[in-house]
Design a protein that fits this description.
Layout: E1 2-6, E2 9-13, E3 34-35, E4 42-43, E5 47-50, E6 62-68, E7 75-76, E8 90-97, E9 100-110, E10 113-121, E11 128-130, E12 137-141, E13 144-148, H1 153-159, E14 161-162, E15 165-166, H2 173-176, E16 179-182, E17 185-188, H3 189-195, E18 199-200, H4 222-233, H5 290-295, H6 314-325
Parallel strand pairs: 7-18
Antiparallel strand pairs: 1-2, 3-4, 5-6, 6-8, 8-9, 9-10, 10-11, 12-13, 14-15, 16-17
Helix pairs in contact: 4-6
Length: about 325
């Protein structure tokens, strides 16, 4: 067990030896991550907000991200891949739409590994309750009605699985290397984490990798922005250590091999998911590319990503279409 005093309250968390979600607090408020009105998401002492250069698309939800590490501990910097976080780290991501908070997902680093905990907000917006298999909920986003699906614990583990172990996805150097508006002023996140003692071993931000912003042409070339989008939305599965490693498509932003990006690559399996198309990516021809076909679908067993969305990300699909259109060459 790990005890920690927060604003005069003694918080006892089961961070050693826990193997099941039932051992963790039933209410989000019990974690004392936020102060004041809970749904306002004002971070408590030691809780640091952060943002990403290119975030994962989740049905146009608004996301707020926070991290808390045990006092006196720090994450170990890695230029490639997720940082090595100390035991006791809690990573929180909240999903909301205008006027309504839907869920807060925690990743808790225990000695036995990372545990995903999905907390679903009540109708009164006063707290969120741990639900390992929550029902879908319908939300309005402007003129759009979305059947929002809250992933169960096993689905969380599937997306976060690397080398058969659950790991965080977003907080890595290239995605964190950006400025953030803190209460103390605007500062690069890598520099801020280093200054407050949350990160060790990091170089100066201008010597660290930096992911392009997928929808900002000034942040990188079309190719860099497309790969940034695929890195965040696809590469957590499509990499040598992910659950889609047998596909042969490794969609990391650092990928240099066109065949690994799917160019003129025959899929490992045919049928519904391939749309009877021959290649994953056909230069200059998105309509005959399986990658574009699957991203532009909401049909189960066709759509990619399989989890995390029920709608088509129109702007993201348009970016990948433009990227494929820009390619030169011909498949045999």
């Amino acid at each position: 067990m790990l005890s920690r005093s927060i604003n005069g309250l003694l918080l006892v968390l089961c961070l050693t030896g826990c193997e099941h979600e039932a051992h963790y607090p039933k209410k989000l408020s019990a974690w004392h991550l936020f102060t004041g009105t809970l749904s306002a998401l004002h971070p408590n002492r030691g809780v640091v907000p952060y943002d990403l250069n290119t975030p994962l698309f989740t049905d146009y939800a608004i996301k707020s991200r926070f991290v808390r590490m045990p006092q006196g501990s720090a994450a170990q910097y890695k230029a490639d891949g997720t940082f090595e976080f100390p035991v006791g780290t809690v990573i929180a991501k909240t999903f909301a739409y205008p006027g309504r908070v839907i869920e807060t997902r925690l990743l808790v680093h225990a000695e036995t590994g990372w545990t995903p905990l999905p907390y679903v907000w009540n109708a009164e917006q006063t707290d969120a309750i741990l639900e390992v298999a929550a029902d879908a909920t319908q939300v309005r986003n402007g003129a759009m009605t979305i059947d929002y699906v809250i992933p169960n614990v096993n689905q969380c583990k599937e997306c976060h699985e690397q080398s058969k172990a659950t790991q965080p996805i977003g907080p890595k150097a290239a995605n964190l290397n950006k400025d953030f508006d803190y209460p103390t002023g605007r500062e690069n996140q890598l520099a801020h984490w280093t200054r407050i003692g949350y990160l060790k071993g990091a170089p100066a931000p201008d010597r660290a990798p930096k992911l392009a912003v997928w929808d900002d042409p000034q942040s990188g070339t079309l190719h860099a922005r497309a790969l940034a989008y695929l890195e965040t939305n696809c590469a957590h599965c499509h990499n040598p250590n992910g659950v889609a490693n047998t596909s042969g498509m490794y969609l990391n932003a650092s990928q240099l091999d066109p065949a690994r990006l799917g160019v003129c690559k025959v899929p490992v399996s045919a049928g519904l998911g391939s749309g009877n198309l021959r290649f994953d990516v056909v230069q200059g021809d998105p309509e005959n590319s399986i990658l574009y076909y699957r991203m532009n679908s909401t049909v189960p067993k066709i759509m990619m990503p399989e989890l995390g969305r029920t709608t088509i990300h129109r702007e993201g699909v348009a970016l990948i279409r433009e990227w494929i259109k820009s390619m030169h060459g011909a498949c045999p």
